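Annex B. Sample input.
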Amino acid sequence: MKAIEQRLPQDFDKSFVVFRETGKYFPCPWHFHPEYELVLVLHSTGRRIVGDHIGYFDDEDLVFMGSGLPHVWINDKQFINGEAGYEADAIVIHFLDSFLGENFLSIPEMDNFKNLLKLSSRGITFYGETREKINKLMKGMLTMNGLKRLSVLFDIFDLLATSTEYKLLASPGYSQKNELKASDRIGKVTEYIMRNFDKEITLHEVASKANMAVTTFCNFFKCHFRVTFIEYLNTVRIGYACKLLADKDHNIVDIAYESGFKNLANFNRQFKNFKNMTPREYRKNIGS
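Annex B, continued. Sample output.
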């Protein structure tokens, strides 16, 4: 089984990713990514494979995984067949070790956390009081923004780094042999999007950056980014719009066009789809 590299879209106004994974079952294939990942399963059962470890997960399962470590959560058949009676549900946090700057891990206060990151190359499952506390914190983060959200992440880091309630998953001899052939194409595509999201981008244009036919590119993109190209592009545009909305000197019509949307109606529709509120409501909530 060959692992593929996957990426998640990140908002302009966020330094790390927190998202809720809900659906009939967890759709991820056997994959890896450069980000560290913390996964809390809220409701579901099945097998999880982390490196060369195969284990079983159920409600409240909590696992922390290092950069580049292949993994997959495979739901039991009743979820895949739609017979479980409820949806699979999880909260996931992604972050890079440099998300607060290149020297972030060099300060003395991060020594324990650096040790945790080393252990995470094998995958770590947490239990007991540590899991209970982190469970509450991760649920609360879903509705947080700004410094409060970042502060809670540091609370989680502290709990992870100082806990003795954990087990390592992959074997000590497990070594990474991932082929990063997709990385170059992913890098070219994401760079092109970030440089041009405020303009009209056609599928043909972006597919040519990956040296692919349009149909092949669409399949490639969905496989590696877990969303369609258009969904990803709109995520980037909405994230940039959020950054502009924090500045009250920008009017909403100008923000729509500066973010790459052709008209205000589409901007309002897409914004509400991603943020569950209108741009005006978002601006009011952040106090601008």
